[in-house]
Design a protein that fits this description.
Elements: E1 8-16, E2 19-23, E3 29-34, E4 46-52, E5 55-61, E6 67-71, E7 76-81, E8 85-90, H1 98-111, E9 115-119, H2 127-139, E10 143-146, H3 153-164, E11 168-172, H4 179-186, H5 190-201, E12 212-217, E13 222-227, H6 249-252, H7 272-278, H8 284-299
Parallel strand pairs: 3-5, 8-9, 8-11, 9-10, 11-13
Antiparallel strand pairs: 1-2, 1-4, 2-3, 4-5, 6-7, 12-13
Helix pairs in contact: 1-8
Length: about 300
C-alpha cells in the first residue's frame, strides 16, 4: 500500500505555476501548492493531498491513464491528463491551419487519446473550403462533425450532448474558432466557474492562458470540458523522428510497402509512402506537413 494512501483524494481542476485548484469528491475546492520542486500537476490529475492551514499541499500524483504533452519554444510541458477524448474545433473563418490540426492529431495519437474534429460556423460560405481541406482526415478515419454553435445553439447542443456528457473532453482550437462559445453553450455556469478559480488562485489576467476543468453536470460531477489556450504552440519534441510516420494513419497504411525498414519516405528507392502520394492516396498537403515536422524533429537537440 502506498504511503500516501491515507491522504484525501482530489481532482486538479485548474493549475497556475506551483499552485493548483483541487476539488474534493464532495465538490469543495481547495487551493494547494505542490510538495517539492519535482512534483508536477496538470488539469485532470488525481492527487493525494492534505490540509495546511487554509490551503493544502499536494503530496502525490496518482498514476495517469494518459498524458498530453505540448511544447513552447523553451521546453516540453505536461498539458492535461486522464482524458477520454479530444475535440478539435476548426472553422473556415478564420481558416484553420492544417499543420496545427495535424500536430494536435499526432500528439493525441502518441498519447493514445481518441479525437473528433468539429467544423464550426458550418453555415458560412467559407465552410465549403474547410470541408475540402478536411477530406483527407475523413478518409483516414477521423470523425468530422459540423455545427453552428452561435447561430444554431439548440441543434449544436443536441448534437454534442450525447458525445460529451459522460466523458472528460479536452477542447482544442485556435482563437476565433468558437471554443468559448462551446463552453458557454454546454456549461450553464461557465463564467461563474472561471471567476471562482481566478479569485482563488489570485492569477487574474493569467487565467485566460491556463487550462481549466468545467463540469457539464456539477451536481452529479458528470462529464467535463477541459478548456485550453490556442494550440499554435504544439511542438512534438517528445516524439522521435522515426516514429512520426506510424502516428499518421494515412502514411502508416503504406509503411509495409517500403523496400527498406528504416525508410525515411523522402528519397529512398522503393518507398511505398511516396508511391501512395503519387497515386493520390495520400494528400499532397499531408505529405508536405510530414516533411516539415520530420525535419523539425531531426533538428531537435535533446
Amino acid at each position: 500500500m502506498s504511503r500516501h494512501s491515507e491522504l484525501d483524494v482530489g481532482l486538479v481542476v485548474a493549475a497556475h505555476g506551483r499552485h493548483v485548484m483541487v476539488e474534493t469528491p464532495e465538490g469543495q475546492r481547495v487551493q494547494c501548492h505542490l510538495r517539492g520542486k519535482k512534483t508536477e500537476c496538470v488539469v485532470g490529475d488525481r492527487v493525494r493531498w492534505q490540509a495546511s492551514g487554509d490551503e493544502g499541499v499536494v503530496e502525490h500524483v496518482e498514476p495517469r491513464r494518459n498524458l498530453l504533452l505540448r511544447q513552447d519554444e523553451w521546453k516540453t510541458k505536461s498539458f492535461a491528463a486522464n482524458l477520454d477524448q479530444i475535440l478539435v474545433l476548426v472553422a473556415g473563418e478564420p481558416m484553420f491551419s492544417e499543420s496545427q490540426l495535424t500536430r494536435a492529431l499526432i500528439a493525441a495519437e502518441n498519447a493514445g487519446i481518441p479525437v473528433r474534429v468539429l467544423l464550426n460556423k458550418a453555415e458560412l460560405p467559407q465552410a465549403e473550403a474547410a470541408r475540402e481541406r478536411l477530406q483527407p482526415y475523413r478518409a483516414m478515419g477521423v470523425q468530422v462533425l459540423e455545427a453552428s454553435l452561435k447561430t444554431r445553439p439548440d441543434d449544436s447542443r443536441a448534437l454534442l450532448t450525447p458525445l460529451l456528457q459522460d466523458a472528460a473532453t479536452l477542447v482544442l482550437g485556435p482563437s476565433g474558432t468558437g471554443k468559448s462559445t462551446l463552453v458557454n453553450l454546454m456549461v450553464a455556469d461557465a463564467q461563474a466557474q472561471v471567476g471562482d478559480i481566478s479569485q482563488a488562485l489570485n492569477s487574474g489576467r493569467h487565467t485566460t492562458t491556463s487550462t481549466r476543468w468545467y463540469w457539464l453536470d456539477p451536481a452529479a460531477r458528470r462529464g467535463a470540458l477541459i478548456d485550453s489556450p490556442g494550440f499554435q504552440e504544439f511542438g512534438l519534441r517528445q516524439i522521435a523522428a522515426e516514429e512520426l510516420p506510424r502516428l499518421m494513419p494515412d502514411l502508416r497504411a503504406h509503411l509495409p510497402e517500403c523496400r527498406f525498414y528504416n525508410c525515411t519516405h523522402r528519397h529512398e528507392p522503393g518507398c511505398g509512402v511516396r508511391a501512395a502520394v503519387e497515386r493520390g492516396e495520400i494528400a499532397a498537403s499531408r505529405w508536405r506537413i510530414y516533411g516539415e515536422i520530420r525535419e523539425e524533429l531531426e533538428r531537435t537537440k535533446w
